[in-house]
Amino acid sequence: MYNPSAAGGGSNTAYGSRLFIYEVEGLRQNEETDKMGYPIRRSGSVFITVPYSRMNQEMQRITRMGGRIVSIRPYDGTSVANGKVSSDTELQPVQSAGETQPMTQAQEKPAKKEKADVPVNIYRPNNPFIGKCLSNEELVGEGGIGTVRHIKFDLRGGDLHYLEGQSIGIIPDGTDDKGKPHKIRLYSIASTRHGDDMDDKTVSLCVRQLEYKHPETGETVYGVCSTFLCHLQPGADVKITGPVGKEMLLPPDEDANIIMMATGTGIAPFRAYLWRMFKDAERAANPDYQFRGFAWLIFGIPTTPNILYREELEELQAKYPDHFRITYAISREQKNPEGGRMYIQHRVAEHADELWNLVKQEKTHTYICGLKGMEDGIDEAMTAAAAKEGVNWKEYQRSIKERWHVETY
Most buried residue, 22, 119, 341, 409, by CB count within 10 Å? Predict the structure, then answer.
């Protein structure tokens, strides 16, 4: 059962044996508040070597003693003493949380984990796969804004296969204003590797028709590829390339925490994740992956009818209430604390302490997909939460780049 306050703890994973260097200012030692027995300098910077599995405990100790974490970086084989970096064969025990003996480089630098075999560029723009549209369904309910389509393509007759979190390219029919073939557009895949029909023969996309006013003429302009796809009829051919992408892949850990932050059609890869995690047919098809962790989707949309895949999402939440949570930010219906529109960054700020406690756990992966404009607000909220423990969020974020995944536009 999910416990939102649980954080840290020991680890038997490769991540748990990694080391990080904390640069800390302003530490004071008090026998009543510090029982760990490590020597603490009273002024200047202190460099503390921390195993990944003890990062949370050490943050709490530093905060308890009035310290401020200036930076966090992965240990790279050099030792740090009195603000200077030197290249040694052993890590000097300047301040070592949980380690009392020097560690050799062989111990401190575990072999880098390579990503599993990931299919990439099976089909390229000069030789695309010709698929067929099987279905093209509206996702926006009555009274909603714009049009978003769930489009399923037939992959039979080819070798196009993919993983959750990847994208495919679409080359729309026709030519541009120079008479040249249209360029490829990439779209996040909204189905699992088995496809919506669980036969390994389809791939699905979630596509919003792009529509905007020309800044000079005021004329309504429609996106070339999105319009092509949204008006595609079942049976029509479509040129497909890819797949591409390794940044948004799910971790293999069945006990992971998966935080998902999406705006609009950024829900596409998260639909694929959630199907893989929770759908009965998927769980039956994937005996080597039986998700037992916690998934949290924070989803930003303009109106209630714009909640894409709402029935699917809420069905999964009802079935797995201890493992899946949804938080909506409905901008044109809900108000933020200042009385303005409720955007995803306001929801992140509202739950920032809880999210921070999750992010500190090495089994937590965070995924952000959708409009790039949400990133600054998310960082601002996480900065405030981390600062309560004396942590510099941007430095910490860099230290967990293997667990912080972003695909925005």
Answer: 22
Cβ–Cβ under 8 Å, residues 299 and 328: yes
Is 79 a domain residue? Answer: yes
How many domains does the chain divide into?
A: 3
Same domain, yes or no, for 153 and 240?
Answer: yes
Residue 286 has pLDDT above 50, yes or no: yes
Residues 330 and 374 grouped into a single domain:
yes
Indicate if 281 and 367 belong to the same structural domain. yes
Residue 1 domain-assigned?
A: no
Tokens of 348: 């992140």
What pLDDT, on the 0 to 100 scale, is given for residue 16?
Answer: 45
> Helices in 152-248 by DSSP H: which ranges?
224-230
Structural domain for 346, as ranges: 257-408
pTM equals 0.74
Q: What is the CATH number of the domain that holds 228?
A: 2.40.30.10
Last residue of a domain, one of 77, 108, 139: 108
Catalytic center residues: 187-188, 369, 407, 409
3-state secondary structure of 56: helix
Which CATH number covers residue 44? 3.30.1490.170
The stretches of 43-104 forming alpha helices (DSSP H) are: 55-64
Which whole number is the average pLDDT over 329-346? 95
Tokens of 172: 């729309």
Q: Rounding to the nearest 10 degrees, give the CA dihedral for residues 165, 171, 176, 178.
A: 100
Using pLDDT thresholds of 50, 70 and 90, give the confidence band for residue 108. very low
Environment class of 317 (CB within 10 Å of its CB; exposed 0-12, middle 13-18, buried 19+): middle
Query: Above 70 in pLDDT, residue 32?
Result: no
Query: Which segment of 11-15, 18-22, 161-165, 320-324 scores lowest on mean pLDDT?
Result: 11-15
Strand partners, 50: 20
Per-residue pLDDT tens for 210-257? 988 888 888 888 899 999 999 999 999 999 999 999 999 999 999 999
CA distance readout (Å), 409 to 52, 207, 229, 237, 281:
32, 14, 19, 27, 33
Return the CA Rg of the chain: 24
Mean pLDDT score across all residues of the chain: 82
Specify the DSSP element, H or E, that contains 161: none
Please give the C-alpha separations between residue 198 and each of 276, 281, 349, in angstroms, as whole numbers: 11, 8, 38
Of 45, 74, 108, which closes a domain? 108
What's the pLDDT score for residue 38? Answer: 39
Shared-domain flag, residues 229 and 320: no
Secondary element (H or E) of residue 46: strand 45-51
